[in-house]
Amino acid sequence: MIELEQDGGLWTVTLNRPDKANSLTVAMLERLVEIAEAAGEARALILTGRGKVFSAGADLEAARAGLATSDLWERLSGAIAALPCLTVAALNGTLAGGANGMALACDLRIAVPEAKFFYPVMKLGFLPRPSDPARMAALIGPARTRLILMAGQKITAQEAYDFGLVDRIVPSDQLMETARSLVADSVTADPDIAAGIAALCP
User: Fold this and answer.
1) Which InterPro entries does the UniProt record give (predicted)?
2) Tell me, what's the pLDDT at 199?
3) 3-state SS, residue 56
4) What whole-number distance in Å separates Cα of residue 179 and Cα of residue 89?
5) CB-based contacts of 191: which residues, under 8 Å, 6+ apart?
6) Are the beta carbons of 77 and 103 closer than 8 angstroms?
7) Running DSSP on this structure, what letter comes out for residue 129?
């Protein structure tokens, strides 16, 4: 349910459980953590999903069993954020719940026009993972972060772009082509130069 394609230095990770809105089980989340923690050798990493939803977050049954508050979410986002290569979340559809963390941890986020973004932790009675509000606020400011996390608002792709939560809106048939074009220079660059530039970018 988690696919990894390695093409030279480009790693493409795909959530492949479209019949369940790419909701994540424990095994899927563990596999994502494993890949992210091993991706130090990658020149670039693209994270995407199959179907019309990027991810609905935790699988409901797994969430009730404790996955919603698992440390695996923080390990995943921390591992992605720590990568020295360029990382792109190519959001093929709606992004919900704890899955926001992995997209927030990426350097760039692109989304299809139909995508919506929400993180209904208050309604569901969970705290967000610790780094997610800080990363979100760094992108869109504290008030808009509260709009999503505390007011429970579902925002459109256009609103997400206007806020600065996503960097480009891309037609679905051009999503992966765009993602690959964004990482093309990083894939072919001297790894030391790429890592050096990454270190200079806050």
Assistant:
1) ClpP/crotonase-like_dom_sf, Enoyl-CoA_hyd/isom_CS, Enoyl-CoA_hydra/iso
2) 86
3) coil
4) 8
5) 43, 84
6) no
7) P
Interatomic CA distance for residues 82 and 50, integer angstroms: 25
User: Cα 72 from chain centroid?
Assistant: 14
Tokens of 108: 């760039």
Beta carbons within 8 Å of 192's beta carbon, 6+ residues apart: none
Q: How confident is the model at residue 6 (pLDDT cuts 50, 70, 90)?
A: very high
Does the pLDDT value for residue 14 go beyond 80? yes
Rounded to 5 degrees, what are φ and ψ at 147?
-60, -40
State how far the Cα of 202 lies from the Cα of 53, in Å rounded to an integer.
Answer: 30
In this structure, the number of other CB atoms found within 10 A of the CB of residue 138 comes to: 13
Residues 6+ apart with CB under 8 A from 117: 94, 95, 96, 100, 148, 154, 155, 156, 157, 160, 165
Cα–Cα distance measured from residue 114 to residue 158, given in angstroms and rounded to the nearest whole number: 9
Return the H-helix or E-strand segment holding 152.
Answer: none
Euclidean distance between CA atoms 202 and 198, whole angstroms: 8
Q: What confidence tier does 57 reach under pLDDT thresholds 50, 70, 90?
A: very high
Length of the chain: 202
Task: Give 110-145 pLDDT, tens digit per residue.
Answer: 999 999 999 998 888 888 989 999 999 999 999 999
